Amino acid sequence: MSTVLRTLRNLRRIGFKEFGHQMQNIGDTKAGTLVGTDRWGNKFYENMTEELPLRTRWVDYKTNWPEFNPDQIEPGWHAWISYMVDTPPTADKLLQPGLRHYESSEHRPNLTLTRGAFKTYSTTVPKYSAWTPVAAPR
Known about the structure:
Layout: H1 4-25, E1 33-37, E2 43-46, E3 57-60, H2 75-81
Antiparallel strand pairs: 1-2, 2-3
């Protein structure tokens, strides 16, 4: 959480509408430069002067509030926001989206721990079977 003075300074920089949006979504106010957007509409920001180390980059998700998930970020932007690379995908030719033929054009969510998750299927006969208790009538 930021100090009152820093919050008021950011309010003056970003305006009331963005201030309310940031307080509702991330619970803090941040002012920075827009680095770029990905093809799903997420906006990526950076502020190297006022933020704490490893909190200088952040993302403003376009949809799915309140359940933000890192799988909603493209791989190149995920590498940049996680400080794995220093240059954003807009400046790095290898990280630019749409250059690889195997990349999906639409976002597919991560379905882990849901009904749509992948489950392996085995064709081998199991070596043991589960025991089902049968109660005798009294």
